[in-house]
Amino acid sequence: MMTFPEIYARHSVLTRISEDALGILKEIFEDAETRRFLPELYEILDTPDGLHRFTSTFDLYAQNDEGYLWGIKHNSEIVGFVAVMDISCDTTLFYAMHPNYRSCGYMKDALQNVLDYLSNHKVVRTISTDIYKNNSISINLLQQLGFCACREDDKKVYMSKTL
């Protein structure tokens, strides 16, 4: 296992999420927009130990070089997260921002720096994600970062980017 990578973005630092950040993660996941656009994740986390299992799972991913859960820290406060998982087989990306910090550019900055890290350190060659069609903000953001739509169904757009 490598040391967990800390990434310095223009407006934030991406760092490992610790137990003391569970409260802010809870706020992010309880937000209506997050629940709407990450419902599968919300179902897992909507249990008494869901957040702890979520972060513990990513600790295991990190120990096995299979994934990362970065907290986006701005002025020493977690304002969102970026997750990358299943690195060895089908690298997947997902993310969410605290509602008080949306539309400030933090997520675009954080995602660009995560993609740069993954590319520069040759962690992966391709990364994928799926976005609900009615989440036009995320679709536009990913397109700005060079993701292309691979396919879609009646609910989601499946996007990927070669690094």
Describe the protein in words.
This protein has 163 residues and is an alpha+beta fold. 37% of the residues lie in helices and 29% in strands. Strands 1-2-3-4-5 form a five-stranded antiparallel sheet, with helices on both faces. A three-stranded antiparallel sheet has the order 6-8-7, with helices on one face.
Secondary-structure blueprint:
Layout: E1 7-8, E2 13-16, H1 22-30, H2 32-37, H3 39-45, H4 50-63, E3 67-74, E4 77-85, E5 92-97, H5 106-120, E6 126-132, H6 136-144, E7 148-152, E8 156-162
Antiparallel strand pairs: 1-2, 2-3, 3-4, 4-5, 6-8, 7-8
Entry keywords:
163 residues; alpha+beta; five-stranded antiparallel sheet; three-stranded antiparallel sheet; globular
Summarize the structure.
With 163 residues, this protein is α+β, with helices and mostly antiparallel strands. The chain is 37% helix and 29% strand.
Rg estimate, integer Å: 15 Å
Shape: globular
Distance between the ends: 22 Å
The tally of beta strands, per DSSP, is: 8
Query: What is the helical fraction, as a range of percent?
Result: 25-40%
Structural class: alpha+beta
Number of distinct helices: 6
Output the helix-strand order.
Answer: EEHHHHEEEHEHEE
Sheet with most strands: strand arrangement? 1-2-3-4-5
Q: What does the average pLDDT come to? A: 93
Residue share in β-strands: 25-35%
The biggest sheet, with number of strands, parallel, antiparallel or mixed sense and barrel status, is:
5 strands, antiparallel
Low-confidence stretches: none
